[in-house]
Amino acid sequence: MNLSVLGSTGSIGRQTLELAECYEDINITGLAAFGNTELIYKQIHEFEPEICCIYDENKALELKAKLKSEGSKVKVVSGMEGLIECAVWDHTDTVLVSVVGMIGIRPTIEAIKAGKNIAQANKEPIVCAGHIIMPLAKQYGISFMPVDSEHSAIYQCLQGESANAIDKIWLTASGGPFRGWHREELRNIRPEDALKHPSWNMGAKITIDSSTLVNKGLEVIEAHYLFNVKADDIIVAVQPGSVVHSMVQFEDGAIKAQLGSPDMKVPIAYALHKGHRLAYTGEKKLGFKELCDIHFEEPDLETFKGLKLGIEACRREGSLTTVYNAANEECVAAFLAGRIGYLDIADGIEQAMAAHSFIADPSLEDIFEVEQEARGFIRKLYDLDK
Ligand code: MG
Questions:
Q1: Which pLDDT belongs to residue 201?
Q2: Cα(60) to centroid of ligand 1, in Å?
Q3: Could you tell me the distance, in angstroms and rounded to a whole number, from the CA of residue 104 to the centre of ligand 1?
Q4: How far is it, in rounded angstroms, from Cα 225 to Cα 223?
Q5: Among the four residues 184, 220, 234, 296, which has the most C-beta atoms within 10 Å?
Q6: CA 16 / ligand 1 centre spacing (Å)
Q7: In DSSP terms, which residues pair with 119 in a beta bridge?
Q8: How many whole angstroms from 76 Cα to the centroid of ligand 1?
Q9: Does pTM surpass 0.90?
Q10: Gap between the Cα atoms of 268 and 19, Å rounded
């Protein structure tokens, strides 16, 4: 396959490039990053893509000059236009979308329209625009594969079941580093406490989201749009250790589960190869010990209000999923910058959702307007512009 990796310097992007070193069938045609020119420079030398996007315009100009002086032929582009050019690049047939945030919405849509197969690691396009993206993927007949481990698990459980209706989705969660804590104990959590995840190794934003369980709220919404299942039929189950990646229950009561080591390379490789399984590249496959340790718990929705709000946003869908996501993004950035407390994250989301004027079927323009409105609401609520 000829692959464009949008977000090549992030955790998923780097792991994808490690896979490209192992599997000869993956040829890198495009790379895109936000502003880490040092790493993308190395990646360009190693994988020799035809196009490279640095979102930050000044950094793109610097890199362009440096590459030109070396006689490199790679085309360097920047901004949203550049990101889209990288996504729809002629020689690219598959796009891995692993950027962070709503920045991935337009490139995902344009890649689908250009007939590219998609491996989707970026949650926000589905969370905010799932009602636009999923019908579009169907209309263009492309392969749209989830990379998120839970959604990959659900997809795998559904193989061979096309004639059978889903009764329930059991979406698993690790519970994060504060599982079992009470609300008051969370009040003085600092960014460095929340940045330690018990089983997955990820970027800062998603690690905070995992600790607040907002990540699971986003994943409930993601599952709702990807598999067309109602919010009330998606059950969140905490499974410390993250080896049961998710389960599907059918009408006859049977439950199918997908298990494996918590290693993102497995769902990435599965998505890129459209469901073909390849030899495991990691260090340790799941064994007896991990299987014996499996147990499930119900999530504490009072302490982890962020999850409860996500389920509510999923139930009402429309523009509320964008408010939930954008308010969270703004709050997490403020928390990481030391501007607000840990519990202010979910409180801020709750207030932004309560203040929002609901749109039932938002257009793309509506979605970006609602995003700005929710961000503005949080900035005002916590006085972040001072
Ligand atoms: Mg996940």
A1: 65
A2: 31
A3: 17
A4: 6
A5: 220
A6: 16
A7: 96, 145
A8: 32
A9: yes
A10: 9
What's the CA gap between 107 and 293, in Å, rounded? 41
Q: What is the pLDDT of residue 200?
A: 66
pLDDT at res. 353 = 98
Cα 148 to middle of ligand 1, angstroms: 5
The contacts found for 101-107 with CB under 8 angstroms, 24 or more apart, are: 101/205, 101/329, 102/128, 102/322, 102/325, 102/326, 102/329, 102/367, 102/368, 102/371, 103/55, 104/6, 104/7, 105/129, 105/364, 105/367, 106/80, 106/364, 107/6, 107/80, 107/83
H or E, element range at 150:
helix 149-157
- Give the distance (Å) from ligand 1 centre to CA of residue 91: 30
- d(CA 305, CA 302) in angstroms, rounded, equals 5
Q: Letter for the amino acid at 131?
A: H
Q: What is the pLDDT of residues 96-119, one digit of tens each?
A: 999 989 999 999 999 999 999 999
Residue 88 confidence (pLDDT): 98
Q: Identify the segments of the chain with pLDDT beneath 70.
A: 197-201
Distance 50 CA to ligand 1 centre (A): 31
* Cα 209 to middle of ligand 1, angstroms: 10
Residues near ligand 1 ion, CB 5 Å cutoff: 148-150
pLDDT of residue 269: 96
What is the 121 CA–ligand 1 centroid distance (Å)?
9
Q: What is the per-residue pLDDT for 71? A: 94
Distance from Cα 313 to the centre of ligand 1, integer Å: 18
Q: Specify the residue for token string 């880490």.
A: 36
**Conformation bin of residue 231: beta by default, left when phi > 0, alpha when psi is -120 to 50:** alpha
Least Cα distance to 124 among 199, 209, 54 occurs for 209
- Measured distance CA(141)–CA(146) in Å, rounded: 16
Check residue 260 and give its pLDDT. Answer: 96
Q: In 70-104, which ranges are continuous DSSP H helix?
A: 79-87
* Total residues belonging to the chain: 386
Q: Amino acid letter at 313?
A: A
